[in-house]
Amino acid sequence: MQPTKSPVDPDSELERLEAAAADGIYSAGVNTVTNLYSAEIFARWWKGPSCLEMGCGDGNTTKLLVEAFDDVTAIDGSKALCDKVAAEGPGVNVVCELFERWEPGRTWDTIVLNHTLEHVHDPVEILGYAKRWLSPDGVVLGSVPNSRSVHRQAAVLMGMLPVENALTPTDERAGHRRVSSPEEFRAQFTQAGLKVVHSGGYWLKPLSNGQIDETFTDEMNRAFMILGERYPDIAAENYVVATHA
After folding, report:
1. Block means of pLDDT (10 residues each) for the chain, length 245 residues?
2. Using CA atoms, how far apart are residues 40 and 43, in angstroms rounded to an integer?
3. pTM for the full predicted model
4. What kind and span of H or E run contains 41?
5. Which of 85, 93, 126, 171 could pair with 73 in a Cys bridge, judged by C-beta atoms 3.0 to 4.6 Å apart?
6. Which distant-in-sequence residues (6+ apart) come within 8 Å of 16 by Cβ?
7. What is the C-alpha to C-alpha distance for residues 206 and 100, in angstroms, rounded to an integer?
8. CA angle 89-92-97, nearest 5°?
9. Pair type for strands 71-76 and 93-96
10. Distances in Å between the alpha carbon of 95 and those of 37, 73, 74, 104, 234?
């Protein structure tokens, strides 16, 4: 299945990405903890010597990928974030471009989309590119926020959100376009022609990020990340492991 080009206006999309990057929310507080824990889960599944990171953000995951792979390419649409990753990650091939406009002309053994697909115009289209850029025996690893998270359910009960998948002010700041249920997230991969071989969740999140940053210790953050793996349906984050069908 070849991806169909979406009606993304490049200039407005790049402007949108730079605005979110300038906010600094990607690596604020517990956001760094959850990104690193996501990479820890991915490490159980990644393959081969080459890795493509689609959406490198502040580069927290990129640093771990450099330690695990001989050949790392990171692509992001934000120039500010690409410059940061290039400066902090010697040996990384950093590409500043929109996925929709990139033609790499090669494949990778492992492709990582760590909190990327909630930002894009069409996640199925982007996963179609990942499929095209994936080596025959490779693996695609993705993570996104879970609309069924216990903290979102509580927010609905308290009247703070109209529905579980509504975008919060924090989502808006980060440039999120959607919050998916586990079923919706898995469906994005299958619709792109990929085979989901494993899925799960992590981070049982009882409070908002701000409340967690004010009250949780490192040990508490770690414990609640692990608890989310035990209760994936109501965890704060979904993840998927996929291969060629």
Report:
1. 61 87 76 93 97 93 94 95 89 95 97 96 97 98 98 96 95 92 98 98 94 95 98 98 97
2. 5
3. 0.94
4. helix 30-42
5. 93
6. 175
7. 36
8. 110
9. parallel
10. 25, 7, 6, 10, 35
